[in-house]
Amino acid sequence: MLDTVRKDHLEPYGYERSTTPALSRFAEEATVFESAVAPAPWTLPVHASLFTGLYPSEHGADQGSPYLDDATTLASSLSAAGYDTACYSSNAWITPYTSLTDGFDRQDSFFEVLPGDVLSGPLASAWQAVNDNAYLRELASSIVHIGAKAHAKLASGEGADSKTPSVIDRTKSFIDDSDSDEGWFGFVNLMDAHLPYYPPAEYREEFAPGVDPSEVCQNSKEYNSGAREIDDAEFDDIRGLYDAEIAHMDAELGRLFDWLRETDQWDDTTVVVCADHGELHGEHDLYGHEFALYDQLINVPLLVKHPDLEADRRDDLVELLDLYHTVLDAVGVDPATAVGTTGDDAPVPRDPTRSLLSSEYRAFEGASEPDPGQRAVLEGDETSGDASSDDYAFVEYAQPVIELHHLEEKASEAGIELSNDHRAYSRLRAARSTDAKYVRADRIPDEGYRLDEDPAEESPIDPDDDAVVAATERALARFEDAVGGAWDDPSETDPDDADALAEADEGTQERLRELGYLE
């Protein structure tokens, strides 16, 4: 997983700068997907969907409730089937605390300050228990505040160092040590391209010569709140640093791939490379990956190497949550057989209509128990006759509690009062086909786009004026019905009634700060 990586900054997707020579070589052996859509624009819900095959509103993991509850993960099914499983990451959200590492026999977070075992095993459960005890919460708050200050110093500035080499080294050791007759499943998340950007010197000199990372804006909330301006030249410097981070990740990923080739394991290994979401660098007057569902965020890179897939490019629609079923298909594991089908945490069954390796892929009429996305595609709009004419991907973005809190802080410090209709207060859902997108919001105007004619999403189109956009809006409405109704009542997220951190208790806030996601 290439965290926070835009596909248009990768050579296999036409980028002119030489950021990804290793991925370019990989692309010659893999299927490169042009229209892969993430189910959300940020890490936690996307990974939860990848690991469960569920849409965000189904699994419920978001900033208001940053846990994956009552769900059997992909790793749990594979481990139960006899596979060795491991997760190595430098992402603050992928820890036992959020339950995203459930089912991995081995896991480690290489995030700064805290060793991986601090938030593992019994202590991870203890952290959740702290939430229910005011005294413990206060004690924990005072202790982790020290850790937060240490992280702030180490994670931003010249004191920061990439954990990616350690992630790759640990992954190689895991593969070397695996002795399962079934095989192994390794998941890695490389975090370098996430703000702040402090690439190693050799890559900075190549892609951002003369740029001092401490002199450019590295805080998206400052810009998005209106407290800080960024001109074109500064955004060029920011993009240079971003490219340098991508180049470093590519080199480390290439080191893993070369090792697999040298040890004669490459041909027998299914390899999936994707991003969980992208990043905005001034497009739509936004910075980072918050408050929007534009394609720079949700149309992500996806490259897959498997014998059943040709080394080619594909334009058809793909959803990242399809990878849950693809991996199960690749190893021939049935979750129902591996872990059972009873209880609230029963796994999502393997579905060939969602496997990239199946001849039935996206032929949803063959789904035995259609999920909300499949139902929205299948039901169609009989009055317009478009029931099966288009495939759609669906994206969800609940109100971002943490980002909103920091946005309000930056605005307040600058003497700026955010209006009640600021996009940061909105929940967003979208339907996307290869030709169009429709975004529904509960506080700002909806947005429709003809992606085939306007891929940069610069000219919104009303559904009344375009039949393709209208069909996409109807698909979104069907999805909304399937997951419990539209998010169209702004009173539910009124900023006067719901403080940005009211949905997250103090223990949750401090743990997230400890993990480096908060200031």
From TrEMBL:
Compositionally biased tracts (Basic and acidic residues): 508-519
Molecular function, one GO term: arylsulfatase activity
Keyword Hydrolase: yes
Domain Sulfatase N-terminal: 1-333
Biased composition range(s): Acidic residues: 454-465, 489-507
Positions of region (Disordered): 364-388, 446-465, 480-519
Pfam name, any one: Sulfatase
Keyword tags: Hydrolase
InterPro entries listed in its UniProt record: Alkaline_phosphatase_core_sf, Sulfatase, Sulfatase_N
Superkingdom of origin organism: Archaea
PANTHER family attached to this UniProt entry: ARYLSULFATASE FAMILY MEMBER, ENDO-4-O-SULFATASE
Family of the protein in this entry: Belongs to the sulfatase family.
Name this polypeptide is given: Sulfatase
